[in-house]
Amino acid sequence: MDISELYRLAERGRSRRKPFRIRCCMAAGCQSSGAIAVKQVLADALSAAGLNDKVELCSVGCLRFCGHGPMIATDPDEALYERVTPENACSILGALNGESSMAPRCDGNQPFFADQLPIVLENSGQIDPSRIEDYIAVGGYESLYQVLYDLTPAETVAAITQSGLRGRGGGGYPTGLKWSTVAKMSGDQKYVICNADEGDPGAFMDRSVLESDPHRVLEGMAISGYAIGASHGFIYVRAEYPLAIQRLQKAIQQAKRYGLLGSQIFDAGFDFKIDIRIGAGAFVCGEETALIHSIEGRRGNPRPRPPYPAESGLWGCPTLINNVETFANITPIIRNGPDWFRNIGTAGSAGTKVFALTGKVQNTGLIEVPMGTTLRRIVEAMGGGVTEGRVKAVQTGGPSGGCIPAQFFDTPVDYESLQKLGTIMGSGGMIVMDDNTSMVEIAQFYMEFCREESCGKCVPCRAGTVQLHELLSKIVNHQATVVDLEHLEALCQMVQEMSLCGLGQSAPNPVLSTLRYFRDEYLARLKPSMLEEVGHHVR
Amino acid sequence: MTLLNHSPSRIKSNQDQCDLRYKTLDITLKRNRHQPDALIEVLHKAQESFGYLEEGVLRYIARQLKLPLSRVYGVASFYHLFNLEPSGAHRCIVCLGTACYVKGAGQILEQLETTLQVKVGETTPDGQISLLSARCLGACGIAPAVVLDDVVSGQQTAESAIHAVQSVRTPVVAGQGD
Question: Which position among A26, A144, A205, A524 has the lowest Cβ density within 10 Å, counted as fewest Cβ atoms?
């Protein structure tokens, strides 16, 4: 493969487009809502009407509005349909001719769509994820070529550093700094790992990226491999995402066939291969040292850091670990330049962030917004507010994060502002809660999660989460006293400070953050005989 | 009809099936060049063909990968997705991710427990339904989600979930056990 061949493939991909296109969302959400049957009906109708040379029916990745699936989009009129059923699907064909459609139209100009700035999701819903030709047709793998021929590895790292990209897995560590640390390490054998173990309940951004645009992640990984001097990459995916795994496997096969992965990529003397490793249901494997153990075929127990994986990671070799969304940002940064990226978002947090907007909100689905967008904009305008009652809080960061009460909704979403509010950006789950959601129960729910998922290696986390969960259950069941509440806070601090890895260190966060903003809910749940005493305390 | 009449052929077919399952496992072992770091992949494949990880299979894998049995058992028991016990004919998984939880997945699970008269993680006495829970399937957009035999259904209620479970259940014909 050389660049002229890549351009030819791209040109061929573009020229095979037909005047009309019907894009059916085939991401996991819409598939569960019956998208496959809908597509079959459309395929049959197109054949019956002899329209196959005019209309292209294609499967695409996520069209974002997951709660209203199955979603269908048509070109060139860019109409969007929601809740399409096999019964009303055929009328979409008539709509291409200007007739009215039976399938419910979805307003593509509402804030949910209009306020999005797709960078990571730019191809999501646009291309067929199972066809590498589609990805190449929109300029795919050109950035890899550009890097191999126009930039040295050091310049590639510098470009990422200059872009201001920070890790999208939740920690927000500067990506360029991570890359340069691994690049500086001596040794011939280095590894790249893509962390696709998206275990946070309520988050599905990485799943959507992998299902909708897998080649973008592969390309990002290959670029990072060139930059740090690695020739072997692993993608660690949750077993709970069978469709993502299937699409990744196919994507890797196709890239190999075209010589875009493997040895001598673009004849530039650069080799890079990618293997998939499938998880087996352990939340702790999202922690980087545990993830490395899991790839090595061991129990997913974390180990103390340092040494950091950048120094000693997979099989003791320097290893770069980035999240799916981080890798998905690499290609556009190379293509458009680091300054373009830096100018998006806020000074400290460049670029966009993909969020999975879920919970008691009208519009659930996937959104990508510039950093610095306010929570109010996201929840009230894009999400359309709660289904009933009043918005109470938004939870970010899953079991490692916290709740943000409605009075802070004017806060811009970036790494620092969220940290100040006692939560974290996390990987991007955003769960909206209304008046009916009890915050103490939410804290209990997360603690149960952490208790179950604690790997058991260190005592503070193994025993601490059990004790914390018991205390929280006591409060939920109106059996706790003020002393229990004090114990709860002291224990939170202990678990936070003494645990070995991120799981334990952050496990108390949901409790601390709900205690900070919703303390009265805790007090109201104390033992009835305590309430008087509490009243005294408050006074 | 009695079981006895059928038993010779049944045993034979079981053996064939067993051999076939070990053959599938061998292919995976070979593909991974018997590397110990492929343990998790091999366990996945073993569970796929055997349904669960029985002791004999774990021993076989340990021998093939030249790993101590303790290590193989340690890994198999660490990860939630590996079952060391056989599961029911049908698997009903209620997602308890946060999005599903705030939309009432807890009540769905409770009602299923009451209807099936089992606790989560257990199988009905007739071996028909295993009731399980999951920590987020990434189907939050269509919460609450319930998976019945690998098919994800969104926007579920307790009634719809119970109805779905009951409809896959094979009706017990009286006198069959005689």
Answer: A524
Instruction: Give A479-527 pLDDT, tens digit per residue.
Output: 999 999 999 999 999 999 999 999 999 999 999 999 999 999 999 999 9
pLDDT tens per residue, range B93-149: 999 988 899 899 999 999 999 999 999 989 999 989 999 998 888 888 899 999 999
Give backbone dihedrals phi and psi of B57, rounded to 5 degrees, phi first: -65, -45
Provide the sign of the torsion angle of the four alpha carbons A332, A338, A344, A350, taken in this order. positive
Domain final residue, candidates A284, A313, A342 = A342
H or E segment to which residue B112 belongs: helix B105-116
Chain A positions touching B135 (Cβ under 8 A) are: 199, 201, 281, 283, 449, 452-453
Domain of B24, in residue numbers: 8-78
Q: What is the predicted pLDDT for the residue at A81?
A: 95
Q: What is the CATH number of the domain that holds A175?
A: 3.40.50.11540
> How many angstroms away from the CA of B85 is the closest CA of chain A?
16
Number of domains in chain A: 4
The amino acid present at A524, given as its one-letter code, is A
Alpha carbons within 13 angstroms on the beta-carbon side of residue A70 total 27
Which of residues A88, A107, A126 is at a domain's end? A107
How do residues A14-44 score in pLDDT, each as one tens digit? 998 899 999 999 999 999 999 999 999 999 9
Lay out the sheet containing A20-25: strands in order across.
Answer: A55-60, A20-25, A72-75, A79-81
Do the domain assignments include residue A67? yes
Measured in degrees and rounded to the nearest 5, phi and psi for residue B45 equal: -65, -40
Please tell me the total number of residues recorded for chain A in this structure. 539
Domain residues for the domain of A244 are 139-342
**Domain count of chain B?**
2
**How far is A218 from A331, CA to CA, in rounded Å?**
10
Q: How far is the CA of A407 from the CAs of A172, A365, A390, A421, in angstroms?
A: 25, 24, 12, 11
Three-state secondary structure call for residue A373: coil
Partner-chain contact A431 B152, CB within 8 Å = no
CA-based nearest residue to B153, from B139, B167, B133: B139
Residue A48 and residue A175 in one domain: no
Q: How many CB pairs under 8 A join A and B?
A: 139
